[in-house]
Model the fold of this input.
Amino acid sequence: MPSKQDRGRTQASPPRPPRRRAALARRTAFAAALAAALFTPAAAAAARPAHRHGKAALRQTYIHEEARLHLAHKNGSSAIVEEGSAAGTFSGSLSAQLSVKISTVTGSVVGYLKGGAISGNVTATPHVSGKYVTFKGTFKLSHGTGRYAGASGTAGFYGVINRETYDATVQLVGRLRM
Done:
């Protein structure tokens, strides 16, 4: 039995069994990771509201999306609707309604991205070479939904269409305010 002098002092605790030590180590590691995640500058920035004076805070974003499209349907001799998946800066799915004529390619493009969608109009100059039509022009972003609300800008629009199968590959490259 401890004497009156030893009662207030702490004694060294006996060593913990290995399972209890491992559980304590896991809880400590989890708490440290949670604290690091919550208190880093990136977490603090993410916690701040993304709105300034009632409008979403937009920033210039460099995009490079490439989509592989296939014919969804054809309307007449020059209007086609292409659909497929896009990969690159955002990735998602893409739908393009194009009118391909001798001197111009025009139409609209909609990108369905995580957290919203963007849409805009395209104008390009085609070049025919055998069974392929290549084109180079611009994409003008006109509308965004969800996290892309208020998005705007112009990007390069490039592509190639196989005139026999109507398979297409298109690229959007440039800077947009998103």
